[in-house]
């Protein structure tokens, strides 16, 4: 370890990085299970396997951006956003996933990932940014609030008990 300040950076992902990003996405899914809403997110919202195939599709999509976060010369985070149309015809950036491995948090990686996604959205002429945050993940909510993203909707959910058939 060097004595220099630890500052994370980010850049667009390369096609040869789908494996490491997919591994980080699996790590994110494992962590999500620790939070309220995590199991539901995995079942209904999160990109499903094969994550490598999904990432390859995103990398080839001109209306999407995949980024990686770097700290101490290693890929330690990722994010991806897509251009989506709203019902009023305007376009926004939807950050589907943004994750930094726990050992690399608080060194600027997440901020760098968000900054690149935001810059991309601005260059695309998009009017807003949405991001998905689990209701039980207070740190993630606080992170996005530093960029002035605020909750504008909540999804409520309950499991239905399955009655045994008679």
Short description:
The chain has helices at 18-32, 38-44, 51-60, 109-123, 138-145; strands at residues 9-12, 64-71, 74-85, 91-100, 129-131. With 166 residues, the chain is an alpha+beta fold. A hairpin with a 5-residue loop joins strand 3 and strand 4.
Q: How would you describe the overall organization of this protein?
A:
With 166 residues, this protein is α+β, with helices and mostly antiparallel strands. Helix content is 33%, strand content 22%. Helix 1 crosses helix 3. It is globular, with a radius of gyration of 17 Å. The N and C termini lie far apart (65 Å). The model has no long low-confidence stretch (mean pLDDT 88).
Give the rounded overall mean pLDDT.
88
Record the strand order, biggest sheet. 1-2-3-4-5
Compute the separation of the termini in Å: 65 Å
- Tell me the helix content: 25-40%
The count of β-strands is 5
Main sheet summary = 5 strands, mixed
Please count the helical segments: 5
Shape descriptor: globular
Class from helix and strand fractions: alpha+beta
- Low-confidence parts, pLDDT < 50 over ≥5 residues? none
Rounded to the nearest angstrom, the radius of gyration is: 17 Å
**Helix-strand string:** EHHHEEEHEH
Report strand %: 15-25%
List the defining traits of the structure above.
166 residues; 5-stranded mixed β-sheet; 33% helix
What is the element layout, followed by pairings?
Elements: E1 9-12, H1 18-32, H2 38-44, H3 51-60, E2 64-71, E3 74-85, E4 91-100, H4 109-123, E5 129-131, H5 138-145
Parallel strand pairs: 4-5
Antiparallel strand pairs: 1-2, 2-3, 3-4
């Amino acid at each position: 370890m060097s004595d220099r300040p630890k500052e994370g950076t980010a850049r667009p992902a390369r096609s040869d990085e789908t494996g490491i990003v997919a591994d980080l996405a699996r790590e994110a899914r494992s962590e999500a299970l620790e939070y309220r809403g995590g199991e539901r997110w995995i079942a209904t919202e999160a990109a499903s396997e094969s994550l490598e195939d999904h990432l390859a599709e995103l990398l080839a999509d001109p209306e999407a951006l995949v980024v990686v976060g770097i700290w101490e010369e290693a890929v330690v985070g990722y994010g991806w956003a897509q251009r989506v149309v709203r019902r009023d015809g305007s376009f926004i950036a939807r950050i589907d996933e943004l994750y930094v491995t726990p050992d690399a948090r608080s060194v600027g990686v997440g901020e760098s990932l968000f900054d690149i996604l935001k810059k991309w959205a601005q260059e695309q002429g998009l009017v807003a940014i949405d991001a998905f945050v689990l209701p039980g993940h207070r740190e993630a909510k606080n992170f996005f609030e530093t960029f002035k993203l605020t909750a504008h909707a909540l999804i409520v959910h309950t499991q239905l008990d399955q009655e045994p058939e008679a």
